[in-house]
Structure formats: C-alpha cells, structure tokens
Amino acid sequence: GAVKPSNFLRNAIEQDLARGTYSQRRWGGSPGDAAHHSAGIADPAAVRMRFPPEPNGYLHLGHAKSIWVNFSMAHNYGGACHLRFDDTNPEKEEQEYVDSIRDMVNWLGYSTEYADVPGQPGTSQAHVYFASNYFDFMYRAAEYLVESGNAYVDEQSPEDMRANRGDFGTPGKDSPFRSRTPAENLARLREMRDGQLADGAAVLRAKIDMASPNINMRDPALYRIRRATHHNTGDKWCIYPMYTFAHPIEDALEQITHSFCTLEFEDQRPFYDWLLAKLCEGGMLQTPPPRQYEFARLNVTHVITSKRRLRQLVEEGHVDGWDDPRMPTIAGLRRRGFTPDAIKLFCERSGVSKSGGWIDYATLEGTLRDVLDPVAARALAVLEPVKLELTNWDSLFGAGHEEPCHAPVNPHDEAAGQREFTLGREIWIEAEDFMEVPAKGYRRLFPPHTGGDGQPKEGNKVRLKYGYVIQCTGVEKNADGSISKVLAEVIPDTKSGTPGADSVKVKGVIGWVGAHNATPAEFRLYERLFKVEHPGEADLADELNPSSLSTMQGYVEAGLAQALQAEGAEPKPLQFERLGYFVRDRQAPWAADKLVFNRACSLKDGWKP
Ligand code: ATP
Ligand code: MG
Ligand code: MG
Fold first, then answer.
1. CB atoms closer than 10 angstroms to residue 327
2. Which positions are annotated as active-site residues?
3. Pocket of ligand 1 (CB under 6 A)
C-alpha cells in the first residue's frame, strides 16, 4: 500500500498505541454513579477522534481539512471517528445546519453510522453525537468543582471582571467573590440554575490563578446565565456551559483519545488538562483523559474560510446562496464540480503541520484536474457559437447525409468505450476558431485573402476533431457587419481513423458540434471570487473579483443529454475537450433540450492577477 508521510499527529497516536495508553481506562476517586457518565460507547476502538462542528452555518474547505484529518487518522489506525455537534450555544444553532453538515460529511465518503461492533451483532449505534445531550453531566461536573473548592460564582459586573482579568504581562486581581465558601457557592449556583438571577448577573468561574501568565488560566468562566430556547433542550436550562468548559468534557465522555484542533486553541490546552484532571480526580471521568493536539488551520489564497465572512457574502448578495459554485463551502465546491476524492487529496497535499501558511489557489484546481483527468468523460462543446457551412457537402455525400463519427469516452480508459455523433452540412464552431484577417501565427480557420506581401493567400485548412480536414473558402456577413456564416469545403478522404487521414497535413484541430443535432446549453464560467490573495483584511466588497462569473450560450454534442439523464441524481464532472472540466448544475431544473453547466476549472491555470 501507499506509504503515508509521517506527521506529528501520527507520532502521537503511534506512541499511545505502543504504550497502550488508552487500553485500560479506569475510574479515579470514588465512582458514585460514574459508570453512567460515558456517552454509551460500546465498541472497543483503540483510538477515537471526533469532528466537532458548531451547527451555526455550512461547512467550508477548512472544515473539510478537519474532517479529513480526523476521519482518516481514525480509519488508518482502525479506530472510530464521531461526528459531534458542538451545540452548547443556544442562540445561533439550527436544524437546517445540523442536516446539511451531516449530508456533507456523508458526501465526502465518511459514514455517520456505526457498523456493528465485531462479534456483537445488534450493537450498532448512531455515529452522531450532540454535546447538548451532556448538559446534565456538565452541570453535575460544575457542582463537583464548586464542592471541591475549584469553582466559584462571581457577581462582579462584566466591566470589573474584564478590568480585573489583567493583561498580557499584567497579573489579574482576585474577585471579591473569590473567597466565598463552597457551601455559599453551591447555593448560589443552584439559584443560577433555577432562574433566580437575571441574565448576566453572575457567572460560574474556575478557581485557578489570577496571576497566571496564561490569561486563559485566570479563573475562566464555566457557566453563564442566558434565557434562550435551545434547539435540543428547549427551555430546560437558563444557564449554558462555556465552550472551553464543555469541549473537554464532551471529548472525555465520548472516550476520545486524541482531540485534534487548530492552533488558536493552543493556549486553551492547559485549561483542558486542568479541568479533566480535576474531574478524573473526583471520579467523574475515566482516566487517562483525552489529550488535545493542535495543527495549523488551512488557508487558501483568494479564499475565505470563516463562517462569519461567508455568511456576509450570502446576506449582502455577493453570491447566490451558500452553495453558489464560487463559495468555498463544501456544498458550493460540490456544485462547482469538485469530487470528494479531489477535496480529500487536496487536504492531503496541503499537509498537517504545526506552522501555518497559505496554500496557493492553483493547487486546489490543479488537484481537481489531476483527479478528473483519468476518470472524466469527454464531450465536445461550443461555448460561443458561429455557424459554419460545408458548401460541397451535398455534392460529395448527397443532401441530408449525416456522417457517423466516434470518439473515446476517455482517452486514458479504453474500457469506458466510445461516443457516437454525426457530422452534417452545417456545424457550430467556436468564434475564436475563425479570423477573417489572421493574426501572425494563427493556425485555425481564415478565408482566402491578400497577404502582407501583396500576394494572394489560400484559405486555411484545419481538422474538425474526429471528422474531416476542411478548407475555409469565405465568410458571409449580416447587415451590421457581424459574421453570419463561415464557409468551407470538405477535403474528401481525410476522415479521422481512415487510411487517408494523414494525406493532408494541417497545423490546427478545432472542436465542433452538428448544427442539425447539437443540444443548446448554458455555460457558467467561474473565476476566483476574490481578486486579492488574502481576502478578509479589508472591506469584502472592495476585494471581490468583479468578473468571477460569466455566462455563455452555446451547444453540446448530440447524445450528451441522454447520457447525463442516465447517470442519475449525482452529476458527474466531465471534460469539454479543450475547454475545461464542467458539471451539470444540480440546481437547474432538468430539461433535455436546455442543459446548464458549471465550469469547475479550465484545463490549464490561466490566472492573471
Ligand atoms: P469558522 O471560523 O469558520 O466559524 P470554526 O472553527 O468556528 O470555523 P467550528 O464549527 O467550530 O467552526 O469548526 C469545527 C472544526 O473545524 C473545528 O475543530 C475547527 O478547528 C475546524 N476548522 C475550522 N476551520 C478550519 C480550517 N480553516 N482549517 C482546519 N480546520 C478548521
Ligand atoms: Mg468554533
Ligand atoms: Mg467560528
């Protein structure tokens, strides 16, 4: 099999597996009802990871990185990975996001169901966890911290609390409420829980060290009062745990072994360890507890990966919704023509490291090309059509003749078979494949003309891909001077794949579709959404690329509509030869006589800043 490059996360896992760190968890302290304090984990996974999104928006490319890191590590070491909704904040979370997050994790190819535990049929359980299901346990943990003298209820005003926290280099000051007895604190905490205090009137804080050089250790808040209806627990609670308190507990209850997060949480790690050590000591959690490891977040040039900024793009109407093909949401990438394999390979290529950096946008599209080239079906399309008439067609073949042509579905994959279409008297060609007065070195169609040396020049010959060599004989124009038709003649006996194909040498090959049977199609061409490399530093509106979308009306080869209809609900990206990779737009209503395609990427990187 493929050798996976080693990284520091793998090293941590391999070390724990070698030492058997998590093979025998045990309860510390005096257990009490401790045995009930696990999230019902029954399978014996040696390592366990989690992807813990907050359901307050759609997943983006950065989340894909985290999904890939967690699920692939778990998979590589025969472990399990949980999809956990970190839904401890009642105000911003919605079912719509829960559903779409689960869909996207599934679409990336990761199951959110457990298989049966080996040897124990019928023990399968949902692979999806909700942090809000642990609110009861979290509250008991809070009471335990109070009883053991490790937490207190602080009733300073928010301003005083902020002022007394101190600053980098300046120690904080103890709150006047810090010396309350455990009994006083417990009574006050219960009043908080029972709704006897107003929102914001008090917070529960850990009692650690107001002089710690790490500000996160200066008595961080554990619970706040907030009267808000929660999507899962309704109005049961008017106090909610803070993320920094909830997250380590969620990991421990689910028996996570390695908790991977991004670098900005590095300063939180001492509190993560402090909290779990206290709860293990008290017999509330099994020991050893999970450990947190940080890696650099994914940053891609010209791309924004922040839910808040992405929401702004949607709400201000800069894009057409969360799944606009220019959005770096997983839904947007999918609609653009990215495949799960391409997204995962990109995550792998971006690397897992301790130091941040920017990955070039070109790497994203380059990865997509690498993944699609060997598998994508080919087709001919004309994006900006001009009609061309083969004036000697009827005399050569008889009026109405259609010449059968064939082409490989994929030139790298003979087993994919052949596609069939026909050539007739009139075809559509790309406007840029004809020049009335050829530029120097132009090798495609031009009519007979007088050269720069005053001598008459012949009309040029090109090959129609998979068809005949043709020679341009003239052009017809509309009253306004625009081109109505290019005229050409077929050179007999030059059809591709026949013995005479090479008898006439040409320097250009052009794409075409039959005017008698091509299907009309709309093509939406996308460029990077932001013209600046590092968007998000200034006003978004000034950073946007004004030409990130252009729409063309053209044609695709006969037979493609039927092929697409047969492929089913999940559109597969394909290559329009010479033009790029495209995918049928999944939002456009199906109409066999009007197809809509999104361009995923061109065949080469042509970005000019
Ligand atoms: P955002 O800043 O977009 O709101 P978030 O980190 O607040 O993202 P969460 O829902 O909390 O969003 O994220 C779930 C997981 O995804 C977290 O573990 C987080 O670290 C990870 N994640 C988010 N963005 C990135 C990124 N750019 N690179 C790697 N991991 C990321
Ligand atoms: Mg977050
Ligand atoms: Mg966030």
1. 26
2. 54, 297, 307
3. 52-54, 62-63, 65-66, 261-262, 297-298, 305-307
Measured distance CA(69)–CA(75) in Å, rounded = 10
Residues 352 and 407 in one domain: no
**Which is higher by pLDDT, 33 or 27?**
27
What's residue 38's pLDDT?
60
285 and 326 both lie in a single domain: no
Instruction: Mark whether 116 and 12 lie in a shared domain.
Output: yes
CA distance 246 to 422: 65
What is the best residue among 66, 301, 309 to mutate for testing ligand 1's pocket, by most ligand atoms within 8 Å of CB? 66
Going from the Cα of 579 to the center of ligand 3, the distance in angstroms, rounded, reads: 38
Query: Into how many domains does the chain fold?
Result: 4
For residue 126, pLDDT over 60 is answered with: no
Q: How far apart are CA 318 and CA 322, in angstroms?
A: 11
Distance 464 CA to ligand 2 centre (A): 55
pLDDT at 134: 92
In this structure, are 264 and 201 located in the same domain? no
Mean pLDDT of all residues in 437-449 = 95
The whole domain housing 228 covers 151-241
- Token pair listed for 166: 């101190």
Which residue's CA lies nearest to atom 13 of ligand 1? 53
Q: Read off the pTM.
A: 0.92
Report the separation in Å between the CA atom of 53 and the middle of ligand 2, taken as the mean of its atom positions.
Answer: 7
218 and 249 share one domain: no
Q: What residues are neighbours of ligand 2 (ion), with CB under 5 Å?
A: 54
| Residue 453's CATH number | 2.40.240.10
Are 250 and 114 part of one and the same domain?
A: yes
Stretch (H or E) spanning 114: none
Q: Closest-lying ligand to the alpha carbon of 56?
A: 1
Strand 483-490 versus strand 385-390 pairing type = parallel
Residue 140 lies in a domain: no
